[in-house]
Design goal:
single chain, six-stranded antiparallel β-sheet, 16 helices, five-stranded parallel β-sheet, 17% strand, alpha/beta
Length: 437
């Protein structure tokens, strides 16, 4: 859309009079696209609820946020090279600097913006360097999450500087065109989002206070199960959704899948976390019963909503969590409507590298109460779970929808496998992309 609007505002870009005229067009074009990507990424950083259904959940929105950031970085590098490269070529004698005539007289707003060009160019260049560094920190997973979290917010500062850079340096006539209107909306919304991020008010209207009421650690799994009693304000959730949980104000909020069904009379939430990073490794020692908690949410569209009479669930490792919540909901429904015939057949495959008799016992009890057929595979004992093993265990798999939560590579392999056997994976293979970085 921005490309089309830019061509409408600058039709001469397709037939430039000289290399430097083409270079000026490319500087404008790459800058507009870069700021478009960055503005949308900044807007998504606020975790807005209204587009969640469009994208299939906040996890998909975060994936888009990540790629918008990468796209904005690539376009910003192109913008920087178009701005700097010809100057370097002139300095090396490869190009001849064009002769510029006297500038046309301007006044008012345009004159003011023209007077700020030097400042905008200098600040924009330093903001660009800062953005490259901060995005590199976000993409290098060896850098601890706590460092990523604390530095990633600084991108909002860089973005605000680049907004000033754009306001001053975008061709002034563009502002009177549809391109200018769209860019003004993007920059204004992005500026508001950046301010919200900087003052740490993301999701503030969706946060409720709670208290940690129970903690149970499974040492063989390196998994902590915690129960939170939420105070007034929690809107309820569907099984499969997740929330951002803050146990310590000095630490960042962490996304956790909710492992319990919602019962308004009890208003309690259960979270299960595995020791996967520096923060989660400290949780068993850091948390205590009675500790205050903030819970933000719920988010996500991994909610088992479809019209299939057969479902296949696959939970890899800690990815079993959303299925626990759904089984608890089904058990509650069976108890409340005991005379109603079951309308859905479900097979749950849980594959795990670590094994706990206690945890598997609880999982088995949940499956029996929910009427779900459970298949547990311990990697060392049973080998790897494959599409062939699933299809052998579920003969009518072609009628099923598949719900997967687990390691990304495992999900990719299963999706490709089922697609090769004729399952329409775009509509019937559902998965959670539980990666917020």
């Amino acid at each position: 859309m921005l490309s089309g609007l830019w061509l409408l505002a600058n039709p001469g870009a397709l037939a430039p009079a000289s290399f430097f005229a083409f270079r000026d067009s490319m500087v404008q074009y790459s800058g507009i696209l870069a700021m478009g990507c960055m503005s949308l990424a900044m807007i998504l950083a606020m975790r807005p609820r209204w587009p969640e259904r469009w994208f299939g959940g906040l996890d998909k929105m975060y994936r888009l946020h990540k790629w918008l950031g990468i796209g904005g970085l690539v376009l910003a590098i192109a913008h920087w090279l178009w701005a700097k490269g010809p100057k370097w070529a002139v300095g090396l004698g490869w190009l001849e600097r064009p002769q510029r005539g006297p500038r046309a007289a301007v006044e008012g707003v345009e004159q003011f913006l023209l007077s700020q060009r030097g400042v905008a160019e200098g600040l924009g260049e330093w903001a660009f360097y800062g953005s490259v560094l901060l995005i590199a920190v976000a993409l290098i997973h060896r850098i601890p999450y706590r460092i990523f979290y604390k530095t990633h917010r600084l991108l909002a500062v860089a973005y605000l500087v680049l907004v000033f850079h754009s306001l001053v340096l975008m061709n002034f006539p563009y502002w009177a065109s549809p391109l200018g209107v769209v860019m003004a909306v993007l920059l204004a919304y992005g500026t508001w989002a950046a301010i919200v991020v900087l003052v740490r008010r993301v999701g503030a209207s969706r946060k409720v206070d709670g208290t940690t009421t129970r903690l149970h650690y499974f040492p063989s799994l390196r998994v902590l199960e915690g129960e939170v009693d939420t105070l007034q304000g929690w809107p309820g959730h569907k099984p499969g959704q997740f929330a951002f949980v803050t146990w310590d104000e000095a630490e960042e909020a962490h996304p956790c899948t909710i492992a319990s069904a919602w019962n308004p009379s009890e208003h309690r939430l259960t979270f299960i976390t595995k020791e996967l990073g520096d923060f989660t490794r400290r949780l068993p020692e850091a948390l205590r019963v009675g500790q205050p908690v903030k819970v933000e949410g719920p988010y996500g569209c991994f909610t088992f909503d479809d019209n299939r009479t057969r479902q296949i669930w696959i939970g890899g490792g800690i990815g079993i969590t959303p299925f626990i919540a759904r089984m608890k909901q089904l058990a509650m429904d069976r108890q409340a409507y005991s005379g109603r015939p079951r309308s859905q057949a479900i097979d749950l495959f849980h594959t795990t590298a670590d094994y706990s008799e206690e945890a598997i016992g609880k999982l088995t009890a949940d499956a029996e109460a929910a009427g779900v057929r459970l298949h547990v595979l311990h990697d060392t004992r049973d080998g790897r779970l494959t599409g062939d093993r699933i299809r052998e265990a579920v003969p009518d798999w072609q009628e099923a929808s598949v719900w997967f939560c687990g390691p990304a590579g495992f999900g990719d392999a299963l999706s490709k496998d089922f697609a090769s056997h004729g399952l329409p994976v775009t509509t019937r293979f559902h998965r959670e992309l539980f990666s917020m970085r």
